[in-house]
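User: Before I run my own analysis I want an independent prediction to cross-check against. Here's the chain; please return only the structure tokens and, at the end, one sentence I can use as a sanity check.
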Amino acid sequence: MDKMIVHWEHVFFPDMVTFECIQVRPGFDKKVQMVKNNFFIFLNGKPARATQRFDSVFYDLYRDFKIPPRTIPLAILNIKAEDDAYFLILHGDGLRKFYFKPEYEKRIYELLRSFLWKLFNKLLMEKEFQDQLSRD
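Assistant: Structure tokens:
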């Protein structure tokens, strides 16, 4: 079971923004039926909604790695951010939607995409290696 779980934490701006994520290993189980509802975001430990642009950083990555959209695994992401790094809007449905401030947004998305690209490459290489071992 723990081969299926990936836990990572990465600091993007020291003392400003840290991402911590627990997710099912991408592409590990082709039987997982997933849609966008299985991506949970927390901002400083409280449920939040991100912008469509933020969500697309993750979903575009799965597309780039040719992971079937219906098998996108469960991901729980906690963003630890100082108040100076984001705007927060409260919606009538009780959820909070956050936006990174313009001076951080572009750089955070670039760093996040780069970090996740490297992580996915590593995970998929490990999977290919394990698949090769099991065939031999």
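Sanity check: The radius of gyration is 16 Å.
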